[in-house]
């Protein structure tokens, strides 16, 4: 039986731990027939070790999305390995510690700027770096977000950064649609990943899901969100773009 990504070539960023959504995306993509290439920063060696747990070997490229030289090298490196791309997965986010944990009113611009650059502007940077690799018939760019339509405890400046990411995705959908390139986001519920460990009070967020989510939510299971990403990478959503699909057990639809 063929997979929904048969013949696709997909670049996946942000694979740091086996527990991450990005790792599960890479795993499912391979299982569904895709060739996968990974990017990592600042420790490619860590991603190379984790990549050995994938069903098939996957090359790892060092890519700092704030580094113009790294971004400029993506095209040649990917073309040499896969010949081109059909899909790109943006799973990148970072905020300095003073931009999290209840320090919203006191965070300096330097830290806010870092959060915005790495977590939001990088979607545009990555899309443009990969644009020459996408075929004439189009492709799919999928990012991961944490719903920024409301304010969350402890999340602080990552909230506005995610809001900027969501807006960036819509504008990319607008401007890349002429080339039949779709840009969408998956808004996942909280997952106990390396990124979660950097958020003070993460357990408070997780507990919210235990109480309010209509569907049972498992913070240790990244696969539901990964399935959403893989579906958007496939040809099953040929006319869906500028969208944010919630994979959060339905919590976004429930009031207090």
Structural features, described:
It is a single chain. The longest helix has 22 residues, at 109-130. The protein is globular and about 45 Å long. The protein is of the alpha/beta class and 256 residues long. Helix 1 (21-31) packs across helix 8, helix 3 (68-82) packs parallel to helix 4 and helix 4 (109-130) runs parallel beside helix 5. The model has no long low-confidence stretch (mean pLDDT 94). It has 8 helices and 7 strands; from the N terminus they run E-H-E-H-E-H-E-H-E-H-E-H-H-H-E. A 7-stranded parallel sheet has the order 3-2-1-4-5-6-7, with helices on both faces.
Question: Which properties best describe this structure?
Answer:
39% helix; globular; alpha/beta; 7-stranded parallel β-sheet; 256 residues
Give the strand line-up of the largest sheet: 3-2-1-4-5-6-7
Alpha-carbon Rg, integer: 17 Å
- Assembly type of the chains comes to single chain
Order of helices and strands: EHEHEHEHEHEHHHE
Report strand %.
5-15%
pLDDT averaged residue by residue: 94
Shape, per Cα inertia axes: globular
Structure summary, number of beta strands: 7
The number of helices is: 8
Portion of residues within helices: 25-40%
- Structural class, from secondary structure content? alpha/beta
Sequence stretches where pLDDT stays below 50 over 5 or more residues: none
Distance between the termini: 44 Å
Major sheet: size, sense and barrel closure?
Answer: 7 strands, parallel
């Amino acid at each position: 039986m063929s997979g929904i990504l048969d013949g696709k070539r997909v670049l996946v960023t942000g694979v740091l731990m086996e527990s991450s959504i990005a790792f599960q995306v890479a795993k499912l993509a391979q299982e569904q027939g895709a060739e996968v290439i990974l990017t990592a920063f600042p420790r490619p060696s860590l991603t190379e070790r984790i990549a050995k747990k994938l069903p098939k070997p996957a090359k790892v490229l060092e890519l700092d999305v704030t580094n113009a030289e790294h971004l400029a090298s993506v095209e040649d490196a990917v073309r040499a390995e896969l010949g081109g791309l059909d899909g790109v997965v943006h799973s990148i986010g970072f905020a300095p510690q003073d931009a999290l944990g209840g320090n919203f009113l006191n965070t300096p611009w330097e830290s806010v700027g870092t959060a915005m650059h790495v977590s939001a502007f990088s979607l545009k940077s990555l899309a443009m770096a990969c644009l020459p690799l996408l075929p004439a018939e189009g492709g799919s760019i999928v990012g991961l977000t944490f719903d920024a339509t409301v304010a969350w405890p402890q999340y602080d400046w990552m909230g506005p950064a995610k809001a900027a990411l969501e807006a960036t995705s819509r504008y990319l959908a607008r401007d890349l649609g002429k080339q039949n390139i779709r840009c969408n986001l998956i808004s996942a519920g909280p997952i106990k990943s390396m990124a979660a460990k950097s958020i003070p009070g993460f357990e408070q967020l997780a507990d919210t899901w235990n109480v309010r989510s209509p569907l049972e939510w498992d913070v240790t299971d990244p696969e539901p969100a990964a399935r959403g990403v893989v579906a958007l990478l496939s040809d099953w959503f040929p006319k869906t773009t500028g969208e944010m699909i919630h994979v959060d057990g339905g919590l976004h639809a429930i009031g207090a």
